[in-house]
Write a structure and sequence with these properties.
The protein is α/β, with parallel strands linked by helices and 210 residues long. Helix content is 32%, strand content 25%. The chain is built from 6 helices and 8 strands; from the N terminus they run E-E-E-H-E-H-E-H-E-H-E-H-E-H. The protein has an 8-stranded mixed sheet, sandwiched between helices. The longest helix has 17 residues. The protein is globular and about 40 Å long.
């Protein structure tokens, strides 16, 4: 289902993908850096969406301001966090009884993880190739929420060594899965990201809000 989300910079282009049967959670999913071709139709984002659907999640993906049909202009910092919070608001209002999770890939992981760590409604945080050395993740590192990370072994943007250092000091609960031989974009291995999502979160417990 295609829709528009009201944001501070204008309407955000978005899409909701529903699972078969009753959904167990709603996930707001953010895409990679728009200035490097990132959109909500990115291959990894698409396959992560399908994987989340397979484990019973409804997925809300959207284009950041200035990307695709989303209004406004790319900001590179607070603006994209505003877009993510607007998408969380939309998802929570539309599905108030469902668990709310925050997820993102690359630049989108920075936005989703840091915004989700701050938002009390978000219960789980999912980061795919988060650029640990390029942005501030302190809020995430101190978060007591469940944190799931998927990292490429040969990631040239977020080196595995940097992720391991960050992960070692991140608060529990947390889990890190490294995909052997994968680069930052998971070129030729994007399907492994989807498979990992299903393995990591297929049995993650949910709480129904009343």
């Amino acid at each position: 289902m295609r829709l528009k989300i009201p944001g501070q910079a204008g309407q955000l282009e978005a899409k909701i993908d529903e699972p078969v049967g009753t959904p167990r959670a709603v996930v707001v999913l953010a895409h990679p850096h728009p200035e490097y071709g990132g959109t909500m139709r990115n291959k990894v984002v698409f396959l992560v969406t399908k994987a989340l659907q397979n484990i019973g999640c409804m997925v809300l993906r959207f284009n950041f301001r200035g990307t695709g049909e989303s209004e406004g202009k790319f900001d590179g910092k607070d603006g994209e966090h505003e877009d993510f919070f607007a998408s969380l608001d939309f998802a929570a209002a539309r599905h108030p009884t469902l668990d709310l999770w925050a997820a993102g890939f690359s630049f989108g992981a920075w936005v989703a993880l840091t915004a989700g760590a701050l938002d009390t409604r978000v219960r789980a945080l999912i980061g795919i190739a988060p650029p640990i050395e390029r942005y501030n993740f302190d809020t995430l590192q101190r978060s007591g929420k469940p944190k799931f990370f998927i990292q490429g072994e040969e990631d040239q943007i977020c080196p595995l060594e940097a992720m391991r250092r960050f992960y070692a000091h991140a608060d529990e609960p947390k889990e890190l899965i490294v995909i052997s031989g994968a680069d930052h974009l998971f070129d030729g291995q994007a399907s492994e990201v989807g498979n990992t999502i299903e393995e990591l979160l297929g049995d993650f417990p949910i709480y129904i809000k009343r």
